[in-house]
């Protein structure tokens, strides 16, 4: 993997390899994905027009995606980036629906967990790039074929009280 993988850092510490960037819908289905070396900023795929060309609507992300420039770029492309705010940021009014959906953002962590533990895409001893790619694609296909995926229960939101 020399020349392809890179050393990166995440919340769990340092690692050598790749990052899998996912966009899912409320049903837990993978809409878009991109593989990058481990040292690539998490916001970088969202700057790629090929990655975002099929996306529209609201994109809920963690605080690692906060960037005014990225927000404005995506907003022009009809994508509304919604994140929590950091302590040192100015507070702004947020739609109640968006606040609730930010809490549901944890579903992506469940999808990542299923990809790793059920579909076995996390493997450390690939001997060739072809083997790595085959394992990754097989895991993504296996996830799409799962009969039950993690979903967001968004029907419980009272539509008459969306502004809060």
Word description of this protein:
The protein is of the alpha+beta class. It has one domain: Nucleotidyltransferase, domain 5 (2-Layer Sandwich), CATH 3.30.420. The strands form 2 sheets. The protein has a 3-stranded antiparallel beta sheet, with no helix packed on it. It has a two-stranded parallel sheet with strand order 4-5. The chain is globular and about 50 Å long. 6% of the residues are buried. The model has no long low-confidence stretch (mean pLDDT 81).
How is this fold's topology laid out?
Layout: E1 6-10, E2 13-24, E3 30-37, H1 44-47, H2 49-52, E4 57-60, H3 68-76, E5 79-82, H4 96-103, H5 107-117, H6 129-145
Parallel strand pairs: 4-5
Antiparallel strand pairs: 1-2, 2-3
Unreliable sequence segments: none
Main sheet: strands, sense, barrel: 3 strands, antiparallel
What gyration radius follows from the Cα positions, in whole Å?
17 Å
Instruction: Please provide the ordered H/E string of secondary-structure elements.
Output: EEEHHEHEHHH
User: Do you know the CATH topology?
Assistant: Nucleotidyltransferase, domain 5
Class from helix and strand fractions: alpha+beta
Main sheet strand line-up:
1-2-3
* Content of β-strand: 15-25%
Number of strands: 5
Give the distance, in angstroms, between the N- and C-terminal Cα atoms.
50 Å
In short:
By secondary structure, the chain is an alpha+beta fold.
Any descriptors?
alpha+beta, 6 helices, two-stranded parallel ribbon, Nucleotidyltransferase, domain 5, 3-stranded antiparallel β-sheet, 20% strand, 164 residues, 32% helix
């Amino acid at each position: 993997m020399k020349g392809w993988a890179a050393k990166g850092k995440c919340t769990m510490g340092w690692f050598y390899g790749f990052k899998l960037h996912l966009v899912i819908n409320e049903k837990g289905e993978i809409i878009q994905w991109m593989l990058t070396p481990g040292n690539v900023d998490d916001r970088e795929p969202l700057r790629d027009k090929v990655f975002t060309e099929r996306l529209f609507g609201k994109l809920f992300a963690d605080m690692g995606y906060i960037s005014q420039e990225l927000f404005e770029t995506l907003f022009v492309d009809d994508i509304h980036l919604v994140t929590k705010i950091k302590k040192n940021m100015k507070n702004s009014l947020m739609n109640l629906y968006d606040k609730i959906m930010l809490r549901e953002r944890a579903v992506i962590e469940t999808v990542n967990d299923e990809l790793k533990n059920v579909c076995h895409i996390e493997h450390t001893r690939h001997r060739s790039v072809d083997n790595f790619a085959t394992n990754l694609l097989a895991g993504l296909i296996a996830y799409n074929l799962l009969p039950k995926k993690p979903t967001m229960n968004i029907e419980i939101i009272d539509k008459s009280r969306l502004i809060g």
